[in-house]
Structure prediction request, 199 residues.
Amino acid sequence: FEGDRGHQFRILRAAKNRFGATDEIGVFAMTDTGLREVANPSALFLAERRGNIAGSAVFAGLEGTRPVLLEIQALLSPKAGEGAPRRAVIGWETARLNMLLAVLESRCGLKLAGMDVYLNIAGGLRVNEPAADLAVAAALISAATGTPTAADAAYFGEVGLSGELRQVAQADLRLKEARKLGFEHAILPRRIASNSARA
Prediction:
């Protein structure tokens, strides 16, 4: 079982399966009567999302072979005191955040070097795929500019060091899940967008 102790959700992930795939997961909620299966994890993870808030973006991700929509939250504040700015990350890799901040500063002209950065994957899930880069970048840009992302848009795509967007696996599954939950738009790498149905 995986999951943040402070959240009610737990992920059951098979590390070894002699007779099947190891990339399948089960999502469970801790209730007063025990563990209960979550039939639609995306709806549950987005249930407490507040629209029209700067620093938030919806990521269309994959957990194993299951598409899951998650809210990524970013908060920026001016660095307090001397020393290096703080980088606090929950649910994502700190090294990947540092790389993305460098790309946004070098390639997009955002001034983030003097800012403390707080990043959270809402719901307590840990995201390991590079496809979250674009959603994290959208949340950071939204927080830096004070402009909310579109409430009906989902994001996915890998960001390269030169600022380019790279394709990720299973775009159609991600788009289908976003469409099922009422998202009208998807922001993703161009080549995938031209070959796949719009969300």
Observations:
- The mean pLDDT is 84.
- Residues 102 and 116 are 14 Å apart (CA to CA).
- The longest strand covers residues 66-78.
- Helices lie at 41-45, 94-108, 133-145, 171-180, 190-195.
